[in-house]
Specification:
mainly alpha
Length: 190
């Protein structure tokens, strides 16, 4: 590819990457409560000074949640689930509608934590499809070449740099729920 054709391809693939990779990174590092609290928030604490350590991470997380809200992965955000349960309990107490003790089972069928885990496992299949929607086309585009759009030495484009950045954010951070990096390692080990 040469000239205008190359530029057109670069911009179209950059648009593809931003559309498909950004939501995956948001879901992996910000929306997932476990990953956010165990990895993302502490990483911000290492590089930011007070009071930014308390201001910026929640702002970034809120922005990531807003960007991915249309995907309906709220089951990854366990903080919101906990807040919703607390709000229901408070509203029941305020309204005087507590469940009578004689109606409460001595052994509940499911616990809240089990229900949360079920939601996360159900979301895993959808997350895998989203990841496949990004990784499959990138793998097809690479097809044994050294770079995404060229096999020539020293012919790296801005697309290659952007893809490397997104893929590094998917692979490098050590998170408790490494669904994205596991998908990449299992399906695309090269």
């Amino acid at each position: 590819m040469q000239g205008k054709t190359l530029i057109t391809h670069v911009f179209s693939y950059i648009s593809f990457l931003e559309t498909h990779a950004q939501p995956l990174i948001d879901l992996n590092l910000y929306v997932s409560s476990e990953n956010y609290h165990a990895s993302t928030r502490p990483a911000y604490s290492l590089i930011l000074h007070w009071p930014n350590t308390w201001l910026l991470p929640p702002q970034r997380r809120a922005a990531a949640k807003a960007r991915t809200d249309h995907l309906k992965f709220s089951s990854l955000d366990l903080d919101t689930v906990d807040q919703d349960e607390d709000a229901i309990q408070k509203s029941q107490f305020a309204a005087g509608t507590e469940i009578p003790k004689r109606l409460i089972r001595s052994t509940p069928r499911t616990t809240a934590s089990l229900a949360k885990k079920k939601g996360q496992h159900a979301a895993r299949f959808r997350l895998d499809r989203l990841a496949e929607g990004l990784l499959g086309p990138l793998n097809d585009l690479l097809k044994g070449k050294q770079y995404l759009l060229s096999d020539e030495e020293k012919r790296m484009t801005s697309l290659d740099c952007l893809a490397l950045g997104y893929l590094a954010l998917a692979m490098v951070p050590e998170v408790p729920q490494p669904w994205l990096s596991n998908k990449m390692k299992q399906k695309y080990p090269d």
